[in-house]
Amino acid sequence: MTAALLSALLSHWWRNPVQLFTLLAGLSLGTALWTGVQAINAEARASYDDAARTLDEGQLAQLATASGAPISEQTYVALRRAGWLVSPVIEGRLGSVRIIGIDPLTLPRDTGAARMMTGADLSGFLIPPGQILAQAETLNRLPDTDAARIATPGAAPGVAITDIGVAQLLLNRVGQIDRLMVTPEQPLGQRPLADVAPDLLLTAAQGSTDVARLTDSFHLNLTAFGLLSFVVGLFIVHGAIGLAFEQRRPMLRSLRALGAPLNRLIALMVLELAGLALIAGGVGIALGYAMAAALLPDVAATLRGLYGAEVAGQLVLRPVWVISGLAMALGGTAAAAAGSLWSLARMPLLASALPQAWGAARTGRAQVTFALVLLGLAGALTQWGQGLLAGFVLLGALLIGGALLLPPILRAVLHWAEARARGPLAQWFWADTRQQLPGLSLALMALLLAMAANVGVSTMVSSFRLTFVAFLDQRLASELYVTTANPAEADRVLNSLEGTVDAVLPLLSMRQSVAGQPVELYGARDHATYRDNWHLLQAVPDAWDALARGEGVLINEQLFRRAGLGLGAPVPLAQGGALPVLGIYGDYGNPIGQIVLTEAEFRARYPEVTALRFGLRLDPGRVPDLRAKLQADAGLPASGIVDQAAIKALSLDVFERTFLVTSALNMLTLAVAGFAILMGLLTLAAMRLPQMAPVWALGVTRRHLALLDLGRALLLAALTGVLALPLGLALAWALLAIVNVEAFGWRLPMSLFWMDYLRLGVFALLAAAVAAAWPAWRLSRMKPARLLGVFRHER
Amino acid sequence: MLLHLQDVTKIYPSAELPVLRGVTLDVAAGEMLALTGESGSGKSTLLHLIGGLDSASSGTVAVNGVDLTPLDDAGRAAVRRGTVGVIFQQFNLIPSLTVAGNIAFQARLAGCHDAGFAHDLALRLGLVDHLTRYPEQLSGGQQQRVAIARTLAARPKLVLADEPTGNLDEATADAVFALMCELVRDSGAALVLVTHSGRLAARLDRRLHLSGGLLS
Amino acid sequence: MSVRIWLLLMLLAAPLTGLAQGFAGLGSRAEGFALPSPDRVLQFPADHGAHPAFRIEWWYLTANMTGPDGTPYGLQWTLFRSALAPEDGQGWGAPQLWMGHAAVTTPTAHHVTERLARGGIGQAGVTAAPFAAWIDDWSLTGPDFDHLRLTASGPDFAYDVNLQARGPLVLHGQNGYSVKSAQGQASHYYSQPAFALSGTLRLAEGEVKVTGSAWLDREWSSQPLAQDQTGWDWFSLSFDSGDKLMGFVLRGADDYTSATWIGADGTVTSFKDGAFEARPLTWHNVAGRSVPVGWQVRLPIRGVDVTLRAVNPDAWMATSVPYWEGPVTLTGSHDGVGYLEMTGYGE
């Protein structure tokens, strides 16, 4: 019996291949977008993990100077001889490669670097010119050195390890150590740190790494995008499954009348859908993999440039996202089919076998009520929601509520137009459009969601970009940045700069803890550079003057939000008590708090910190000359001089790449929605013959009817687009003002990009036109006999 | 008795009057019975109760010695599969299966598919040239002949037919009806035919008239 | 003690998490190292210091001790030097590497720890006068070689003891030129077998005052031994009579034994292969291996026939290359204490 039933159920798909294709394609595309995004995320995360694990950053406690100045080898040896099991690390860049110098003899076991050393030739590694261990791809990016290059597959991308002695030579920093890793198990009888190395600060092991927290923002955006895309796909699936169920109602009735038990039928249909979902999920995963493989190089470049995070340019098939893709396909199918299965379970055997007007039941009063409840929930969450989860619930409620409200709004608009239409054909056009609405509403909802997601994401990305550019201008106001290795070199540089630049701004900084938060303190010289470029989100009157007089400090938004330090709140500082907050500035992408005080206050409180980095103000045209002069006169290495224009250009280039990724995803979701419309129209085409035939019989040509159909698709797409705009903007607002704040502690100011929206509208119309073109063309070429058949074949 | 109805009533919650008011009926194996009555007289309802498609409000419906009234959906479905065959006014073919597939279908459900027997039926019903076609490619008379073949292929003991020729023109209807009667008689099954046509009813063994919810 | 040359080479050649294979290249870079010479006359205090022109060298100290309640304890402190090239130098690139092993054995526990360091930056090293040998916070220091202070620390133990020499240095072989094989391999080798020890052990249960005796070996060479043996058993025994016996068995196709007798009067006698006998009596499972922790040791020529029993059978050295080393007690023809070292007992 099971075989007979299954063959009857499956025969439906053979006889309706377009429906089968719609179902599989919708599910595959949704899964593909989701999986692709997950794959990119998983790959990037795995890469950071590899990089972080190289030194078990975060997993091990660290020792470093408060000022960030290098640690001397004498201090290192003194610590070891005092019973401190610490291992030295020096880090720097050679070209685009992150060079990490380690001491393999003291390296804590179970670090990634120790694993990389397994099988290495130790004496070759230790004795100059030494060896550099990295992935082959990373080695190719290294400039020429004497050190032997050893391809090490286990290395993190973009990271090379070498002996600390070799690294010091390569980085031109002989005798310097950046930080000390502290082995977890320390011996008895260790002397106190304060006695041995009072200038070093012990940072306890942390759970996550800075880079992971920074890049979380990027991944959250991608994940949100993937989810939105999947929801768009689900609407298509829901439509296809709903249609298939409605069309099979007569068959199901027959089967039951012939003696098929209902529960067996339901079980078989669940089985059938699960099988289809697995097939579609598998195809989707393959497509997603292809998409991720195509996009990953751009994402890798984005992350490298934006956050300095290294991501391998190659994709590995990871079980995590394969499983998540299949789970999404199955779960999505279940969600899409639940309603249909439920109504099948409750369908009386003798109910009318005629298919119900598809979707008509879904546009009732209950739907409007439900949509309004969802939107109300979203509104309430913006006011009273707490936490990231509430943010995501808000997004979901907003999107689904908006989508459910679309058909009633469209129906009202069409009704209004119909009442004002003159001429019989126009009246028929509006009435017929309204009648088609139930059949197309799922496809239109998919289009609405795709467009809203587009508007939301592009607003978010563009706002992020604007903010980021402004932030670059604020933070990179000086034309040239100079980093010196030690105070002597700093003096040499300052002397050679005498009278050649407009201003020298020393960059004094150190770390400490304020209100339980790790915080960076900066000493800023009172100079127009800061006043002109720094944008304060909140400030007391004449904040800059008050700051210059040493009456308070400026803090970044992160510290303001996390420690709850508003204007006027006292900020506790190391020596000499607290200073009040004079202003709060935006500090985008920075994971930790910052405090800015005047140079004088800083030097008075932290006399042990000397400035080793300087910002130089000068005529941008003279930058190359000064660069050359600094290298010649003060003997600064090229790596110690960074030119602001170069950094900005690099950063912006990175942003353009981000755009490439998001716009590619945007196009894909739009294509998926266009596909939904096509499928909706194709299914409707057959059902609509009885409605078209009388109009044709009354003297309207097929060509005319086809044009009207095309116009109808464009009209519906345009109306949907108009409604998608506010929904998309609400989505963007929720992402920027709610989710971002909950996730990262800072709010992105939202900007509007009308040209982008207009372009999107044009694309959406184009998608609708392309989708409607084929059914319209088929209609214009339809044999009159088929239209006539309507009159003979009436059921 | 193949079929035994005792004091069967049927009341729909939405209707004021009972559709059936204590119907008692016995049909012997091989007997061919016509049920006539006006539209809305409850003859289709009675047929549905006999076929286990609906359940009686009170009374007993026993088919082949099995009382249907206490059975659940699965139990009644089993009786439909094994003992009863229903031929509807609407042909109720499975549109996505070929003619051959449709003919074999109920027998496969009942687990008694016999390809030779099915082919014989197709031959006698004049369907052999259409076995690979789909229902939508057939005329109404052909479709109903497929429905008859499907029902008889499963070798039911009781065939229920609800206006089987109601959708066909008179000439076709007569031909199909004659063929159906002949085949049912040959198979030894009992037939309960619901029709409003006295002409067709007159051709069967016995004729009962349903009026006001009561048999006469 | 020549077997310890082998120990070190094996140590350096064996897989050491992440770094050991690096040491494996050592053997092929042997060119240019100084070789031991029978003509060399050891000069003190200069020869207490490091000899960077030689490939390997160590300062190896073991001690038998007792606590106030009579509990026996054992202690080990070893500083190995291994040169990647026959030169000294400053900075990270200097080719002198150092390794320290320290252990404390009680009847119920065995604490062990290891350190690695580079010489060129001052993290480890040895100076002759005043004498100082150190790696990280571990040290063996004193105004001269007869008066030393020894410290070491691990996550679960530490010690700080004073050593007073109770006799002269013992030069092994021919004035400290110790021939190791028929092929002519040799080392420079001397010992101070008679340090009186007093000091403090720091253990989980608290501080323990201890007294006892210690044996310090000094040896340096550049040549590995023949490698056909699978391991060795090494014994240093101090009899209550004041006599001392060092002996070892190299296990292989044919066992090879050697021994040195140091009389209470300071006379030193070496014995060739076959004079010394050692036979396992009881076996014990430790770290997944079966190791003999009870022995019958005989030197018939001196009337020695003693039974050895480990103070703690679990004295396993879980260092980069693992081995067994711990204190033993003796009964039989002589009573006394000693140290036992066993290598090459596979899993």
TrEMBL record, chain A:
Subcellular localization, as worded in the UniProt entry: Cell membrane
Residue ranges of coiled coil: none
Primary localisation category: membrane
Gene Ontology CC annotations of this record: plasma membrane
Membrane topology recorded in Swiss-Prot or TrEMBL: Multi-pass membrane protein
Keyword check for Transmembrane helix: yes
Residue ranges of every copy of the ABC3 transporter permease C-terminal domain listed in the record: 224-347, 667-784
Keywords attached to this entry: Cell membrane, Membrane, Transmembrane, Transmembrane helix
Origin: domain of life: Bacteria
Transmembrane stretches, start-end: 222-245, 265-296, 320-345, 366-384, 390-416, 437-457, 667-689, 710-737, 757-777
InterPro entries xref list: ABC3_permease_C (IPR003838), Membrane_comp_ABC_pdt (IPR038766)
Pfam families: FtsX
Protein name: ABC transporter permease
Source organism: Gemmobacter lanyuensis
Lineage, top ranks: Bacteria, Pseudomonadati, Pseudomonadota, Alphaproteobacteria, Rhodobacterales
UniProtKB/TrEMBL annotation, chain B:
InterPro entries membership: AAA+_ATPase, ABC_transporter-like_ATP-bd, ABC_transporter-like_CS, ABC_transpr_LolD-like, MacB-like_ATP-bd, P-loop_NTPase
GO cellular component terms, semicolon-separated: plasma membrane
Keywords: ATP-binding, Nucleotide-binding, Transport
ABC transporter domain boundaries: 3-215
GO molecular function (one): ATP hydrolysis activity
PANTHER family xref list: IMPORT ATP-BINDING PROTEIN (PTHR24220), TRANSPORTER, PUTATIVE-RELATED (PTHR24220:SF659)
Signal peptide: none
Annotated protein name in UniProt: ABC transporter ATP-binding protein
